[in-house]
């Protein structure tokens, strides 16, 4: 498998898509810093440097979906998969090597973004305001979730032989996961009481009434579980620093990784290559 990894990373370095991803990561970091600096100067907003480091987490799922579908999508169309098998490489090694390349590239993208934001953002906005241990834990959880994302989109890319279909399915799934996460967050953030203002005897009176849409404790536990199981849900919680228990999230990500990687290896092993 070492030979497969060496070949894969060599192909990666020569691929324009990789350098586009690197440029995108740098460009996005510069854009985030610029918009936040402008907001601070115009509106007097308080900007936390560590928050900028976490923001990329909310959209990186879409980035991984696009990169994976385009980079691995050509493995079938140009005959690379068949060639690897014909020269004696085992299917499990082919699958795992592709997963490793996607994961390393995705982590590289986030690390580049974080490095640029830190290098420029800290001098502009000041030192990090939370304990370094907390920031490292948040970033560590993000990296583990990136591994989970990579396992999902590698599974799709290796299961579907058509690059266009792979890209469509992957991107649609990435956005669907984001929408599902936002829906769960909206429900969990529902206020228990709603303020109602009325006029009584010529006086303005404000009172709170029970919100009929407020979820029960059981419903909140269910929605929180769905949010934790969803990689996009994990990323929104990590970026917003709203996760009830950070230590739980890597466990969910590990489960996602194991399920999709094991399923992908089995499916690819049985796959009839056209």
What can you tell me about this protein's structure?
With 274 residues, this protein is mainly alpha-helical. It has one domain. The chain contains eleven helices and two strands; from the N terminus they run ααααααααββααα. Strand 1 and strand 2 (203-210) form a beta hairpin. Helix 4 (60-77) runs antiparallel to helix 6, helix 6 runs antiparallel to helix 11 (249-270) and helix 8 packs antiparallel against helix 9. 34% of the residues are buried. The mean pLDDT is 92.
Tally of discrete structural domains: 1
Low-pLDDT segments: none
Mean pLDDT figure: 92
Radius of gyration: 22 Å
Helix content: over 70%
The count of β-strands is 2
Name the strands of the widest sheet in spatial order: 1-2
Can you count the helices? 11
**SS-based class:** mainly alpha
Give a quick summary of the entry.
This protein has 274 residues and is mainly alpha-helical. The chain has helices at 2-14, 16-43, 49-55, 60-77, 80-86, 91-125, 132-159, 163-188, 217-229, 231-240, 249-270, and strands at residues 193-200, 203-210. A two-stranded antiparallel ribbon has the order 1-2.
Write the layout of secondary structure elements.
Blueprint: H1 2-14, H2 16-43, H3 49-55, H4 60-77, H5 80-86, H6 91-125, H7 132-159, H8 163-188, E1 193-200, E2 203-210, H9 217-229, H10 231-240, H11 249-270
Antiparallel strand pairs: 1-2
Helix pairs in contact: 1-6, 2-6, 3-6, 4-6, 4-7, 4-8, 6-7, 6-11, 7-10, 7-11, 8-9, 8-10, 9-10
Key features of this structure:
single chain; about 270 residues; mainly alpha; two-stranded antiparallel ribbon; 11 helices; about 75% helix
């Amino acid at each position: 498998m070492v030979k497969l990894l060496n070949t894969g990373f060599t192909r990666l370095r020569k691929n324009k898509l990789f350098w586009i991803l690197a440029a995108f990561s740098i460009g996005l970091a510069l854009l985030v810093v610029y918009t936040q600096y402008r907001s601070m100067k115009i509106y007097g907003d308080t900007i936390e440097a560590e928050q900028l480091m976490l923001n990329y987490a909310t959209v990186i799922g879409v980035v991984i979906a696009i990169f994976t579908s385009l980079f691995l999508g050509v493995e079938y169309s140009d005959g690379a998969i068949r060639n690897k098998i014909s020269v004696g490489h085992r299917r499990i090694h082919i699958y795992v090597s592709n997963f490793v390349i996607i994961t390393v590239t995705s982590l590289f993208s986030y690390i580049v973004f974080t490095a640029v934001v830190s290098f420029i953002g800290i001098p502009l906005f000041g030192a990090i305001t939370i304990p370094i241990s907390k920031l490292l834990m948040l970033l560590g959880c993000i990296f583990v979730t990136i591994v989970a994302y990579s396992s999902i989109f590698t599974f799709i890319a290796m299961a579907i032989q058509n690059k266009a279909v792979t890209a469509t399915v992957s991107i649609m799934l990435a956005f669907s996961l984001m929408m599902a996460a936002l829906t769960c967050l909206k429900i969990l953030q529902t206020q228990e009481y709603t303020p109602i203002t009325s006029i009584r005897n010529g006086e303005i009176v404000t009172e709170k009434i029970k919100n009929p849409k407020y979820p029960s404790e059981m419903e909140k536990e269910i929605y929180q579980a769905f949010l934790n199981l969803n990689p996009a849900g994990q990323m929104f919680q990590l970026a917003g620093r709203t996760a009830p228990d950070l230590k739980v999230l890597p466990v969910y990500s590990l489960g996602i990784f194991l399920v999709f990687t094991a399923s992908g290896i089995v499916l690819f092993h049985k796959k009839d290559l056209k």
